[in-house]
Design goal:
- The protein contains 6 helices and 5 strands.
- The protein is an alpha/beta fold.
- The chain has one domain: ATP synthase, F1 complex, gamma subunit (Pyruvate Kinase, Chain: A, domain 1), CATH 3.40.1380.10.
- Strand 2, helix 3 and strand 3 form a beta-alpha-beta unit.
Length: 297
């Protein structure tokens, strides 16, 4: 049985842990709100790009671009977003499990011999995907690319992937990430980055149907404008994915810290009860000893 001193030490340790997890929860919560604001700030830019795309596509022109060129798939690039830091529960493990499902789906769709290059974003997910390297799967990391990367680095990363697709090194590029919905809910999502899906473009155009009756004069011509706007559209998508991933990571950390805090409180209550019982038992024993001594006299 633990002594009073040992229990007091354990109570102090658990109490400190409770305070730490509570503080970490508040910090992560503040960061979630920060990334929610970043998503809202990105929205006007993204909406404007979508508006331009919608107006161009409604012009009735036939469009051509290397970014929408579909070809036979021999080599697939898969970008998987995770976290650089821990203490976010099963966040990275959930992404990794779904990532394995997506790899199997790619092989089912394009053949078992299809080459797959994985581009992990985040130290924790990079460590996880290293386990599956080999058997047609290669891991490649870009210098400076992490889950915490800023806008300039996102632009460089997106441009590098675009270059690999245009050069023919990659025939298809997909992105696996957690889409942020709320602090308690994140949804694992798989988006196709290159070639840009024709359905996705038409969906964007459909959402801008309010401008269908407006007349526009395009200079120099719709196809050239389309080729200028399309990379911006992809970049806005990648920027949104990066922020969504960060918001989801922080939300997962909030929930993990909440769970740890709740467990610490339960443990603290149990230890405090045990401490009080042991202390009361000691007092009772001392009183009995005193009374026993008086009786003997």
């Amino acid at each position: 049985m633990a002594t009073l001193r040992e229990l007091k030490t354990r109570i102090g340790s658990v109490s400190s842990s409770e305070k730490i997890t509570g503080a970490m929860k508040m910090i992560s919560s503040a960061k979630v709100h920060k990334f929610e604001q970043a998503l809202r700030r990105l929205l006007p830019y993204k909406n404007q790009i979508r508006s331009i795309m919608g107006h161009i596509l409604q012009s009735g022109t036939t469009f051509s671009s290397p970014l929408i060129e579909e070809r036979e798939v021999h080599h697939v690039g898969m970008v998987v977003f995770g976290s650089d830091d821990g203490l976010c529960g099963a966040y990275n493990m959930n992404i990794f499990k779904q990532f394995l499902v997506e790899i199997n789906a790619v092989r089912d769709a394009y053949g078992k011999d299809v080459a797959i290059t994985v581009y992990p974003v985040g130290k924790k997910i990079a460590k996880a995907v290293e386990k599956i390297q080999g058997n047609g799967i290669n891991i490649e990391r870009f210098e400076g690319v992490s889950s915490k990367m800023e806008g300039d680095r996102v632009t460089e990363f997106t441009s590098a992937l675009r270059g690999k697709f245009i050069s023919g090194d990659l025939d298809l590029v997909k992105v696996v990430y957690m889409q942020f919905q709320s602090i308690s809910r994140q949804r694992l999502t798989v988006d196709q980055l290159y070639p840009v899906s024709h359905k996705a473009i038409m969906a964007e155009a459909g959402e801008q149907g309010s401008g269908a009756d407006k007349l526009y004069i395009f200079e120099p011509d719709p196809n050239r404008i389309f080729n200028e706007v399309l990379p911006m559209y992809v970049l806005s998508l990648m920027q949104e994915i990066t922020i969504e991933n960060r918001a989801s990571e922080m939300a997962a950390r909030v929930m993990a810290m909440q769970s740890a805090n709740d467990n610490a409180k339960k443990l603290l209550e149990g230890l405090q009860l045990e401490y009080n019982k042991l202390r009361q038992q000691g007092i009772t024993t001392e009183l009995l000893d005193i009374l026993g001594g008086q009786v003997e006299r």
